[in-house]
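ok trying again, last paste got cut off:
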Amino acid sequence: MTDSQGSTQHAPPRACLLLVAVVGVPTGCQREAFVDRSPPEEEPQGEVQFAGSEPKNAFHLEEGNVLARTAFSSVAPANSQIEIRDFQFPPHVRTRLAGLPGPGVIEVYSGHGTLALSGTTQQLLGGVVKGVPAGQALEFDNQGDFSLVVRVYVVEGK
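nice, full thing came through this time. structure:
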């Protein structure tokens, strides 16, 4: 560019980038992705294996069709153990869990139902946090159409 006195000025870098961005955008160049989703040629023989490594702290099936996992476990000070467990209870099912090895806290992630503990029944809704004593059986009643998912924090004395 030249100004009124005839000297040359350089365009600022932002203006150049804007020009390249506007001019360099192709129009009408859309491609369709191709994905082969045809069924397998024949059914697999024997046990089907998961295609990959099992995730760390995977859920496993327990009695009553409950999915459970230990998300975290660590030795804590003063000869104690801290564990974080996740449970997923199927819809419209009442499930009894054995007592916890130490006092704990239950945090409801999703779903709704009740928790029967020591002869009292407490409502469970998403976001609710409840304390539970050690050694007492926990009876969950999932009253919803979806899974009841809870996280249990346990502190166990050794």
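cool. Helices lie at 13-23. Residues 113 and 142 are 4 Å apart (CA to CA).
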